[in-house]
Amino acid sequence: MSPASASPASEAASAATPLVELRRVTCGYGDKVILRDVDLKLPRGQVTGLMGTSGGGKTTILRLISGQLAPWQGQVLFDGVDLATLDRAGLYAVRRRMGMLFQFGALFTDLSVFDNVAFPLREHTNLSAAMIRDLVLMKLNAVGLRGARDLMPSQVSGGMARRIALARAISLDPELIMYDEPFAGLDPISLGMAARLIRELNDALGVSSIVVSHDVDETFAIADHIVFIANGGLVAEGSPESMRQSKDPLVHQFFNAEPEGPVHFHYPAPAVEQDYGVQGGRR
After folding, report:
1. Is 280 left (phi over 0), alpha (psi -120 to 50) or beta?
2. How many of the other CB atoms lie within 10 Å of CB of 210?
3. What are the residues facing 27 on neighbouring strands?
4. Sheet harboring 225-230: ordered strands across?
5. pLDDT at 10
6. Cβ neighbours of residue 149 under 8 Å, at least 6 residues apart?
7. Per-residue pLDDT for 275 more than 60?
8. Of 67, 204, 227, 234, which has the fewest Cβ atoms less than 10 A away?
9. How far, in whole angstroms, is CA 222 from its chain's centroid?
10. Does position 149 have pLDDT exceeding 60, yes or no?
11. Nearest-5° angle of CA 30, CA 33, CA 35?
């Protein structure tokens, strides 16, 4: 059944199904558990800020969603489909419905700006060269860089590289766009521009967005929903304002940038007397 002929009931059922869902997921790397028994639903059509302490599992969740990492236990579903049930062709088809903005852009350094954005279209479609040209220029225009199409990555700034990577991420008109630390290393102007683009593209394209970031102010300004991950699990979720007002000690410390709280300045260490050989106040 084509989307045009879908019944109101089927459309309502699709809208009710979370675009991304984790069900009691446990996973990690080697012998180290990163996420334990996590349940998570990400709403459609919204910008979700995925935040938390360093090493808490935020990027791991992006890898689970894209099928780069399989859970040890539990299910990862995209649009109601368990990724573990898909063969290689099925997984690649699902990935074509996703766009990914990697940290620092990850552009192909030996390809021009134009060819970087064209790459997914050439790999995954049979469109003519003329159609690909028009689409690439449209995507570059959406991020304000149509005039930079003939430049090489070495000739653009960090902020421009991030915008070029965003144009590449939306080249296949994905339903989900994932951003891994999109604000890291940007100057205030580029940072504000990147945040505005994320919000505007989400609304203009009707997509769902997941933003992994430590930048509280910028993420809160554009996010509809915040998910806070720490200590291997989902600690809290809700609107930006509810996160700011949370009474949970860890959530409160993180979002209010307080030096004192559950996260301590000193890494656990032996007693001073033991390390320095101090006995009775003397060496």
Report:
1. left
2. 26
3. 35
4. 98-101, 176-180, 208-212, 47-52, 225-230, 233-238
5. 44
6. 112, 113, 114, 136, 137, 140
7. yes
8. 204
9. 14
10. yes
11. 130
